[in-house]
Design a protein that fits this description.
94 residues, alpha+beta, 17% helix
């Protein structure tokens, strides 16, 4: 079981009312467990790995990067993937 505590002076939190504030984020085995607005959480996790985010960076807890490169070696080009569907569509409308 791995516990990490991320501390950031600047973080974007509070959906749907998004605001920027200092936070402490507790992550257990890669999953966000808690988000605090102060440093009192440190005493609750004495064996946790502390990660300090530099002040010139902004922490976005929970952001998932869904970017998938289409032009990787294991994925055919988009034109080849779309071509059969395009041909079928053209045949249906003509």
């Amino acid at each position: 079981m791995t516990i990490q505590i991320f501390r950031a002076r600047r973080a974007i939190i509070g959906y749907p009312y998004i605001h920027e504030s200092p936070v402490t984020v507790v992550v257990r085995d890669g999953v966000i467990e808690e988000i605090y607005d102060d440093d009192t959480v440190a005493t609750n996790y004495p064996d946790a790995e502390n990660v300090i985010i530099p002040e010139d960076q902004v922490l976005l807890p929970g952001l998932v990067d869904t970017h998938v490169p289409v032009s990787s070696p294991n994925v055919p080009s988009p034109s080849l993937v779309l071509l059969p569907g395009l041909v079928c569509w053209l045949l249906l409308i003509l």
